[in-house]
Specification:
The chain is α/β, with parallel strands linked by helices. It contains 19 helices and 17 strands. Bound molecules: ligand TNX. The site of ligand TNX has 9 residues, from loops.
């Protein structure tokens, strides 16, 4: 009998059951935790190189933001440290953003090749800590995590043209992106309802262009000054998030055209003043002046030029003498050829600024050299466009509407927000992403940079509704983008999501729980 018990215990130690599963989201590449040994951290004695001290400071701040206040936090000798950060360029942790975390009863050690890796190690600790907080400090189970992301581009886009949310809300999103190890914030700053970025050479953008939103043409002007934009960029950089601005062209330009009508290429009945005028030399100077300012604000290598849906409102190009002359001069056979000419030219302009262009998937047949751009594939109903992008050698970010458009509803019981026929964007579908695009991921692993979710805001007018549409789908996005879970396991993911739900509650975030739809009712959109 005793032998049998002993055998059972031993068997237990070597089966996966022994390793207590962690609650970390996104799921780490490998982790193992013991159930019987713990480490308590009430006071931090840290050791790291002077250049990494900011990571400890920021970590302590993050703990405090979640209500975990330590008794103290001071630097100590490595031997006595209970938190050790080791930046080792030659470490066995292979990937730039990877890390190894070792928790023993006396010490918590993170080894990485880069600051980003150390930061992600600390985010994992943060997630474990908030799952077991104490009055002072927190408790961790001992164990190890060896981790790195599958995808380098783990993005979230926010449309602030249709509705403007402001500094505080953007910072809140960046905080949560960091918590879930997302690393690209794509900022959609211009579109029809409003232009949201100060451009010093063109002051009318912030008086005329910034006025109004999707629901109210006369809403007071809302925009970011250049110094506010820089503050957001810094805030994001502290969290290892790169900010990519989007200045949409040649379509979706109505707010710009209200400000400077001399560069208006006209629109359609449904989309008035939709395009810039590609037939005027002055338009190229104007846009290049704007982009020089944008390039000076945003340190990112990338500027997103949109390039989407131009045919929604380019009919007037047919009767515009300047455009007709341009077509003759350059032998452009139709309006799409004009659009592509415009995009090639603007991409060249960005190249002179040492910036790489990003465009929506409309650009993949524009003849732009692959070395000068990246594309975002969004039209899930046009898989051909993705195939073309990859065949043409374009680095591609996957953000198909289904399941990555967060303005789509997340449950078929919801009535506010988009559907594609009957399709929508539930958490389950986000988790299934790797299986859905297995073929492309296998065939073009070096061209698919990663994935991104896009929060379009025609139907999102308030912070509350923004939260409802974003949480917990942001966590599912991170799970897919980090890409280490072997297969989509909704039940397991929902289990790991429970600590996040508690934090959302503490923070007053109106989230959606797919397993408790009645308790987390839909926050409806306002109708136009
Ligand atoms: C398509 S995605 C758009 C946006 C809309 C969105 C609504 C893309 C490149 N264009 O302008 O806001 O659908 O889901």
């Amino acid at each position: 009998m005793r032998i049998l018990i002993l055998l059972l215990i031993l068997a237990g130690q070597f089966t996966p059951g022994y390793s207590q599963k962690s609650f970390i989201i996104p799921q780490p590449a490998a982790s193992s935790f013991t159930t019987d040994k713990k480490m308590n951290l009430e006071e931090i004695h840290y050791s790291c190189a002077p250049g990494q001290e900011f990571l400890v400071k920021n970590f302590v701040q993050q703990l405090a933001d979640f209500g975990i206040v330590l008794k103290g936090c001071e630097k100590s000798l490595a031997k006595k440290a209970n938190l050790l950060l080791v930046l080792d360029p030659k470490s066995l942790v292979e990937e730039a953003e990877g890390y190894k975390l070792v928790i023993t009863p006396k010490q918590l050690r993170i080894v990485a090749k880069s600051d980003a890796g150390l930061f992600y190690g600390l985010q994992s600790v943060l997630q474990l800590a908030v799952a077991k907080p104490f009055a002072a400090g927190f408790e961790l189970s001992c164990g190890t995590v060896q981790d790195a992301p599958k995808f380098g581009w783990r993005g979230l886009m926010l449309d602030e043209s249709r509705h403007f949310f402001g500094m505080e809300k953007v910072k809140m999103l960046l905080d949560w992106m960091a918590f879930y190890k997302l690393n690209r914030f794509h900022w959609h700053l211009t579109d029809e309802p409003g232009w949201r970025l100060e451009i010093k050479g063109y002051p009318l953008f912030t008086t005329v262009g910034a006025k109004g939103n999707f629901l109210d043409r006369n809403a007071e002007p809302k925009f970011y000054t250049q110094s506010e934009a820089k503050e957001i960029i810094r805030y994001a950089a502290d969290r290892f998030i790169e900010v990519i601005p989007e200045i949409d062209m040649p379509g979706h330009a109505a707010a710009a055209n209200r400000s400077y009508p001399e560069f208006n290429g006209g629109g359609s009945e449904k989309y008035p003043d939709f395009t810039f005028d590609p037939g005027k030399e002055g338009t190229y100077t104007y846009l290049s002046n704007i982009l020089w300012e944008v390039a000076a604000i945003f340190p990112s290598r990338y500027i997103h030029l949109g390039g989407d849906e131009v045919n929604f409102g380019n009919q007037q190009w047919n009767t515009n003498a300047g455009i007709q002359a341009l077509m003759q001069r350059h032998q452009l056979k139709d309006l799409q050829a004009v659009e592509f000419y415009f995009l090639r030219r603007m991409t060249d302009t960005l190249s002179t600024m040492k910036k790489t262009m990003i465009g929506w998937d409309e650009i993949v047949t524009a003849g732009i050299p692959a070395s000068q751009c990246k594309t975002m594939w969004w039209r899930h109903d046009k898989p051909k466009q993705l195939e073309l992008a990859l065949q043409n050698g374009y680095h591609t970010i996957l953000c198909p509407r289904i399941p990555f458009y967060f303005d789509f509803v997340q449950s078929n019981t919801h009535t506010s927000g988009r559907y594609w026929q009957k399709a929508f964007a539930p958490v389950e579908k986000i988790l299934e992403f790797k299986q859905l695009y297995k073929e492309q991921l296998t065939k073009y692993p070096e061209l698919i940079d990663g994935i991104q979710a896009n929060i379009w805001t025609e139907t999102i007018h308030s912070n509350e509704r923004l939260d409802f549409m974003t949480f917990p789908r942001m966590a599912a996005l991170a799970e897919a983008a980090w890409g280490q879970a072997d297969a989509a396991d909704f039940a397991d993911f929902m289990q790991r999501l429970q600590p996040s739900f508690r934090l959302y509650q503490v923070k007053g975030i109106r989230y959606f729980d797919p397993q408790q739809p009645e308790e987390t009712p839909e926050i409806p959109a306002l109708k136009k």
